[in-house]
Amino acid sequence: MTTVTAPPMPTLPPAPVREHQRLTSGRLPKWAPWAILGASALITALVFSVLAMASGSEFSIAGWAVVSALVYLVLITAISSLVEGRRKGVDRLVTGVVTAAFAVAMVPLVSVAWTVLVNGIAGLSAEFFSSSMRNVVGEGGGALHAIVGTLLITLAAAVISIPIGIFTAIYLVEYGAGKRLAQGITFLVDVMTGIPSIVAGLFAYALFALFFGPGIRMGIMGSIALSVLMIPVVVRSSEEMLRLVPNELREASYALGVPKWLTVTKVVLPTSIAGITTGVMLSISRVIGETAPLLLTAGVASSMNYNLFEGRMMTLPVFAYTQYMNAGIPVQAYHDRAWAAALVLIVIVMLLNLIARLVAKVFSPKLGR
């Protein structure tokens, strides 16, 4: 019996290994930028300390920060260019510049927040939130009347501004594209965006003075003045959000025979509700801290007033202004109430923004509604 053996399989030559060309000659470790930053800060601090001791002046924190940032940018660019290549060095330079710009922008924000927090806590108490300044001279009293007035006036301004602003934005995007009327409205909205707040207060005062005579002060006048400032912000923000809605969604709705008004209501608005809500809250934050128009329209009061259509009404910005500028004896009590009012105003704005984010998250179409 003969055994048949299979011929040996031909061996294939090994596939050539392709060498990938590297863009850089090396790579800095992740800790290197932080080490360079720390070294720059330390070296600069030593130099500034020596100069301060030699001249007998104080250590300049601002100058130290600026010079440390410049030294870091120079070092990180030079070292990265030598190790990683010129392209990566330029990238790290731009990254450092952007980070430094962000840090500079955060300095006044953090400084203001910290100053208001430190000074405002001293004036906060149960009495501050439960009583007004009626018959109060010196220590004691609170800002309940100002808190209520701020909420009522801002709420009335929002009720006036939000429908007008959203409907105007819908017309500009959905119905008025290319029309002269829409172009005129856009121009007027742009002009209104930049008007000073005192002009809005003068407008509301002049409007009511024509009907009720000079010297009139009411909460609704403040709401009208704030609505003049809110409407252009709502229009511009809502217009931009509506333009971001893809036209394919509108065309798909039209293809199903849905009329235009129902398409706007059921497709366009739900799709852009998150951005519109953010724009509305930005407009509220824009006007809730206004002082000049409310001084002219709502006036100054020391008692509770729940009626927007009768009598003067106090607000938190005006309360803080009057407590600080018209301080009595003891002065510290008035200043504490002013700082506490500023802190409460910031907290109210923060809560409104958190509520807006929650509303945008709940009603956003991304949740599968």
Give a structural overview.
The protein has 369 residues and is mostly helical. It folds into 2 domains: 32-121, no CATH class; 127-367, Orthogonal Bundle (MetI-like fold), CATH 1.10.3720.10. 71% of the residues lie in helices and 0% in strands. It has 13 helices and no strands. It is flat and about 75 Å long. The N and C termini lie far apart (79 Å). The model is unreliable at 19-25 (pLDDT under 50). InterPro entries: MetI-like, MetI-like_sf, Phosphate_PstA, Phosphate_transprt_permease. Belongs to the binding-protein-dependent transport system permease family. CysTW subfamily. Residues 147-356 form the ABC transmembrane type-1 domain.
Features:
369 residues, mainly alpha, MetI-like fold, 2 domains, 71% helix
Summed up, what is this model?
This protein is mainly alpha-helical. It has 2 domains: 90 residues, no CATH class; 241 residues, MetI-like (MetI-like fold, Orthogonal Bundle). It contains 13 helices and no strands.
Mean pLDDT: 85
CATH superfamily of the largest domain, by name, is MetI-like
**Number of domain units:** 2
Question: Rough shape?
Answer: flat
CATH topology of the largest domain: MetI-like fold
Order of helices and strands: HHHHHHHHHHHHH
Number of helices: 13
| Main CATH class of the largest domain | Mainly Alpha
- The amount of helix comes to over 70%
| Beta-strand percentage range | under 5%
Task: Please describe the biggest sheet, giving its number of strands, its sense, and whether it closes into a barrel.
Answer: none
- CATH architecture tag of the largest domain: Orthogonal Bundle
User: How far do the termini sit from each other?
Assistant: 79 Å
Number of beta strands: 0
Helix/strand-derived category reads: mainly alpha
Low-confidence stretches: 19-25
Mind telling me the C-alpha Rg?
Answer: 31 Å
Pfam family, one: BPD_transp_1
Transmembrane segments: 31-55, 61-83, 95-122, 142-173, 185-212, 218-235, 338-360
Membrane topology: Multi-pass membrane protein
Domain ABC transmembrane type-1: 147-356
